[in-house]
Specification:
This protein is about 35% helix and about 35% strand. By secondary structure, it is an alpha+beta fold. It starts with a helix and ends with a helix.
Length: about 110
């Protein structure tokens, strides 16, 4: 069941935030609630407010991690599994500047 959702949020954020941001799928866990004996579905919703919040936070700090909760439900709406994904966010410009600064340090 976990493989169904692995990587989806990361790819969504990469596409929605744009090329100037780095998004990594840092970790994930799953808690099975009941057997999934039929087709299971999950909803992945990312609001404009969430995107604005990430951009604002990355204007203030270099990087941060955030958790997202996903439910896999059957046709009756029963939750069969709860998944927690931890994503890492960083501005690409800041990451590039950090690498440049590291490479420009004088040898010791």
């Amino acid at each position: 069941m976990y493989g169904v959702v692995d990587g989806i949020l990361m790819v969504m954020f990469i596409n929605l935030l744009g090329r100037e941001y780095i998004v990594w799928d840092k970790s994930g866990s799953i808690r099975y609630r009941r057997p999934g004996r039929s087709t299971l579905t999950a909803k992945f919703l990312i609001s404009d407010e969430e995107l604005a919040s990430i951009r604002e936070r990355l204007n203030e700090i270099e990087k941060f991690d955030r958790e997202y909760h996903i439910e896999l439900v059957d046709a009756n709406g029963d939750v069969c599994a709860e998944i927690v994904k931890e994503l890492h966010f960083r501005r690409k410009v800041m990451a590039d500047d950090t690498m440049k600064n590291r490479n420009q340090r004088a040898p010791q």
